[in-house]
Amino acid sequence: MKLNELTLTNPYLQLPAEFYDKVVPTPLADPYLIHANPDVAKILDIDEEELQSDTFVKFLNGEYLARGSEPFAMCYAGHQFGQFVPRLGDGRAINIGTLGKYHLQLKGAGMTVYSRHGDGRAVLRSSIREYLMSEAMQGLSIPTTLCLGLIGSEHQVRRQEIEKGAIVCRVSSSWVRFGTFEYYAHQGMFEELKALADYVIDENFPHIKGREDHYTLLFNEAMVITARLMAQWMSVGFNHGVMNTDNMSIAGLTIDYGPYAFLDDFRHDHVCNQTDVHGRYSFSNQPEIAKWNLKSLMMALSPLTTMEKLEKNLAIYDKIYMRYFHYYMCKKLGFEGTVEGDPELIDDMLDMLESLQVDYTLFFRTLSHYEGDRNALLATGLYHEPMHAWLDRYDERIKHIDATERKEQMLSTNPKYVLKNYMLQEAIDAAEQGDFSVVDDLFKIAQDPFDEHPEFERWAGATPKEFKNRKLSCSS
Ligand code: AMP
Ligand code: MG
Description:
Layout: E1 20-22, E2 32-36, H1 38-43, H2 54-60, E3 72-74, E4 78-80, E5 83-85, E6 93-99, E7 102-107, E8 122-123, H3 124-139, E9 146-158, E10 162-172, H4 178-186, H5 190-204, H6 214-236, E11 238-239, E12 261-262, H7 286-301, H8 307-314, H9 317-333, H10 342-356, H11 360-368, H12 375-378, H13 385-398, H14 403-411, H15 421-432, H16 437-447
Antiparallel strand pairs: 1-3, 2-9, 4-5, 6-7, 7-10, 8-10, 9-10, 11-12
């Protein structure tokens, strides 16, 4: 469809008035297109030719509102670094409407009543990071919000330095956060809380609608998909960095990309967020923090059911998480399923990788090609002995697995490329100078991370020493 043929709906506006605030986007001056995502356009049934039009730039800039659009910002609360903040909300993301089951937001489109001390803007740097990383997650089949397009401008945004303003059009089957439930629970607004739960069930969990105890089931669904998401993040080496409850999606999606990182060398206690001085959101804390966040969700949902029932659900989180984690890790290792001894083999592998300072992504990709000659694997680490010892056990484990099938499974499970922060920084530096070719290149590998892409070989190795394990600021 052409943009002027679209009709947006606004189902969230059927909720009571306390859920949102209607607000008109404040466009950026002289915007230009940096990238458009044809796959997301297809999902939304927008014609690909439209993506190169002036109207598309205006659409992303909030200047051209499609038919039916009634822009609004959503209200929510959240636990930030463990402290409850009773009112947050979309301070810089403006919803412009829904197409099919996807809700569109313009992030960086100006102030809303929830902006607090912020300016409602997003900088080019963080917008490129969100745009590329959501596509990379999609490429890795990890549940995520998506982006339809990215525009830049010369609009000046004050951060530590003056930066350029940008807008990403984000697309998701839900923008409801754990913190959205917390807002109404904390206010004692139980009718609203119920309306929100019903809305989410309708939208994201229709299979539990009308079932007995459906609010307990809603929690159960959120618990299971969160456990699975954590296992996926951990298996691929993704560190989110700001797992506040307002950044936790009720639909189990990776949401609100900030100072995230893919691991360089494997490190259990890697912290990617500069502001996180105590390492609350460190890499290995993620599954446990997700459980802490689920507990906050549980408290918020408790007026709709009983604590006893909810607690029973939360009690099985660890088991479910572990099951998913072992499932994804065994897949990475080329096993057909999980057998006794695999959890120890995985744990010992991670300790080995950490002690030898091995690049996490490179290790698995190299292991995918392993046929008995250990040289390439040994070259990924500092010392040989621990790797030999672990490979002896690995050899024993795979001796009855068909080598061709194992390789095939591993090459389609272990990406050759992940978007490490130094690569993103290269795209950002070029884009600041008006050159978007690195954004284009990273987009290609984000979409097909398992392909060889010989032209991008320089990004397939370990992270260059000077760029390893850097922390980023929260405004990323
Ligand atoms: P985040 O850390 O990006 O998840 O944001 C936390 C909260 O701060 C959310 O309510 C955001 O909407 C809000 N926020 C972040 N940056 C800005 C900004 N530049 N202007 C207004 N609100 C913001
Ligand atoms: Mg957020």
